[in-house]
Give the backbone structure.
Amino acid sequence: MEDGIVEDKELIRTMRNQRRPIVCDECVQKMLDEGTLKKQTPYYNDEDKFTCEELYSLWHTCFKFLLPRLKAFKEWCGDYPADLESNEKWKEVLDEMIWYVETTLRNNNFEPTEEKDRYKKAKVLFHRYFFDLWG
């Protein structure tokens, strides 16, 4: 167990050095001691049930929720943003947004070593058109 804790603390230092969002060392240690990092229990209240794990990496939780809905939205949507010339162009933008979310999840929020330019462009499209995701 001691080795596992050292590895986790090293991970925390690495994440801090990369300016990645994390919870404090004390919280992580408490979760490790309780064994709650692997198996979570409802965290908040009976109305809004979510786990500490969902909070620990909230971007991951949001992207996992978003991905299947973004794919369904692409098939379902019938309109497109005013600054795009066609529904076909909107579907291309949605494809890039989907690719961006999939790539981000696959690479654990690290920029991929391959296709960096595509990743950066897809990220811009995701941010630009996120609030256009309505029917």
